[in-house]
Design brief:
By secondary structure, the chain is of the alpha/beta class. Strands 5-2-1-9-10-13-14 form a 7-stranded parallel sheet, sandwiched between helices. The two termini are about 10 Å apart. It binds ligand FO1.
């Protein structure tokens, strides 16, 4: 089976860890969100690509779901003493990734090329493609004005109300090499359990991606990031409301309207299944909360079973 997975950060990474345990990892092409990317201390940081990469490499900090396990924070402490901005917690080993990425980008490589180098060096067998090599930035409109995604998410701890979300640069961005081909030749395309507005939304906003998802003969299936009418983690609820989407599996289905052959929802949302089925989408009801490795694997199996 050729599989393409559109992925955000922590939820997607856990799901993908289950997926590569039940499918050949080299047959799983991951298309990662770069709308959360940022520059700090002169470094180019791609948090979602790194979260997926560290998780599949077995290096992720399990407690946080991002960053490198057992990392130290000497550089961050020194930067704080110099009066630099340290809201975004970069560990020392993680910084090595960003130093390497930044150096290679400055040498003229594309983000796709650097990401492929990094994932190969970390022993990750699945190709990880950024959605675009061009700069796209998710921006969050709050009553106090527009914020970069990480200012809203990390610095302000998702505190401000969200009025709107936009993907700056998306309309003139070019989809990264291999993404459209991978979607066209896939047997299954999975929209991972990620925030539909801030994680999958930016990928869908890159010109060509939506069209490829509509055209592909692949079975297109999404895993809901909403359980029991609330986000499993993060600010999905606020962001969905800002985009006029109900915070429910019906809202998730609407975010992906016209794209899905199947939607995988939690048993707690089983009551919605009939309504969704009436719209022609097949619905799989299962336990989607990935409390441990066994559940990550079971969820991946359930998702693959949704394909004819
Ligand atoms: N998330 C936080 O909540 N606080 C942090 O300080 C933080 C630092 C960080 C550093 C590197 C990295 O790859 C991810 C990091 N994240 C942090 C997670 C990141 O903000 C989110 O996982 C995604 O951007 C949302 O998908």
């Amino acid at each position: 089976l050729k599989i393409v997975a559109l992925a955000g950060g922590t939820g997607a990474a856990k799901f993908l860890r289950g997926l590569v345990a039940v499918a050949d990892p080299s047959d799983v092409t991951i298309v990662g969100n770069t709308g959360d990317d940022l520059e700090l201390w002169g470094l180019s940081i791609s948090p979602d690509l790194d979260t997926v990469m560290y998780t599949l490499a077995g290096r992720v900090d399990e407690a946080k779901g991002w960053g490198v396990a057992n990392d130290s924070f000497h550089v961050r402490a020194a930067m704080a003493r110099l009066g630099c901005d340290t809201f975004f917690a970069l560990g020392d080993e993680d910084i090595a990734t960003h130093l390497h990425r930044t150096e290679r980008l400055r040498a003229g490589l594309t983000l796709s090329q650097v990401t492929d180098e990094l994932r190969t060096k970390l022993g990750v067998r699945s190709p990880i493609l950024p959605m675009s090599d061009d700069r796209v930035r998710t921006r969050v409109k709050t009553p106090g004005g527009w914020l970069d995604f990480q200012e809203f998410f990390v610095r302000d701890r998702c505190g401000p109300d969200v009025v709107d979300v936009r993907y700056e640069g998306a309309e003139r961005s070019r989809v990264a090499p291999g993404v459209i081909e991978a979607i066209h030749t896939a047997d299954v395309v999975i929209l991972c359990p990620s925030n539909p507005v801030s994680s999958v939304g930016p990928i869908l906003a890159v010109p060509g991606v939506l069209g490829a998802l509509v055209e592909t003969t692949a079975h297109v299936v999404a895993v809901s990031p909403i359980v029991g009418g609330a986000a499993v983690s993060g600010p999905a609820a606020k962001m969905m409301r800002a985009k006029g989407l109900e915070v429910s599996v019906a809202g998730v289905a609407r975010a992906y309207e016209g794209l899905l052959d199947a939607l995988v929802v939690d048993t707690r949302d089983g009551a919605f299944a009939e309504d969704l089925r009436a719209t022609g989408t097949s619905v799989v009801v299962t336990d989607i909360v990935m409390a441990d490795r066994t559940r990550e694997i079971a969820l991946a199996q359930d998702v693959l079973k949704s394909a004819p």
